[in-house]
Amino acid sequence: MPPQIQFRLRIRRNDEIAVGPGKISLLEAIDRTGSISAAGRELEMSYRRAWMLLDEINRSLKEPAVSTAAGGRQGGGTTLTPVGRELIQRYRQIEATAEQAAAAELKKLIKLLAP
Amino acid sequence: MPPQIQFRLRIRRNDEIAVGPGKISLLEAIDRTGSISAAGRELEMSYRRAWMLLDEINRSLKEPAVSTAAGGRQGGGTTLTPVGRELIQRYRQIEATAEQAAAAELKKLIKLLAP
Prior knowledge:
Two copies of one chain form a homodimer.
Chain A: E1 4-13, E2 16-19, H1 21-33, H2 36-42, H3 47-60, E3 66-68, E4 78-80, H4 82-110
Antiparallel strand pairs in A: 1-2, 3-4
Helix pairs in contact in A: 1-2, 2-3
């Protein structure tokens, strides 16, 4: 099996991960599914856990990453705000930039691995 | 508190992390201390855990990352091989390259965070 490369960016503040792979995946799942509970199911986490992560994301940003329409949990659904979309886009772009920049050096490291 | 940026590289193969931050930190600690048990203490892991991680590292490389002098656990100490040193050096260089390449984009992402 060829080796899989993972570059993961985490931004910590006050002993909390303000932005990291789990939170970005949650926002992406909310964008796909339009709901916190469906996103939680997709990522195999409880509604409570998804809601708490989302609350941490929203508190760590200047403006919230999602907006919930009237009706709440059972009702109106949850969509990403422009800031939420920008956060995902920038995060994924940074990962791609990092992988591209390090590609040549990564090849040399991988040559140290057993076949 | 200013945000702390962490870029972490992991190389997975066969559902195992062949190279990752924990294993690189262990090799660095062995290099500093000259022993698996002292390195384990420094990283707050058991000798058994440190030994198992090291075994995984050695098995995932073409050549072992460490060599243990006669005497074993109580005796001769453990030192890095040239391959072990090259692995650490390349890993840390890749992290630095990634951070430098993504620095401008990271600043824009950090602007989305609450002050």
